[in-house]
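Standup notes
- DV: blocked on the single-chain target, sequence here:
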Amino acid sequence: MPFRAPILLWLALAACAAPAGQGPADPDACGASALQHLVGKTEAALAATALPAGALRVIRPGMAVTMEYSPQRLNIELDETGHITRVFCG
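- DV (later): unblocked, structure below
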């Protein structure tokens, strides 16, 4: 019965897949879309900006960050010169 292994593998992978049409409840749960105007500005602009309540992570070049996805966490990515290059949830 050599065909069992591929079937069992397929069933195991299918069990890990999310049901169709079910993604994150709110892809902008952290409020990143309202802060896209910060892209291109310096990190100092953060002090003058009303940031949403919740988890905030400022990511600098070469900084180690965890890879778990947290939809409520606001991530602000900086380049080598201290300018904001990306604002996103996760």
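- Follow-up: The first helix runs from residue 4 to 16.
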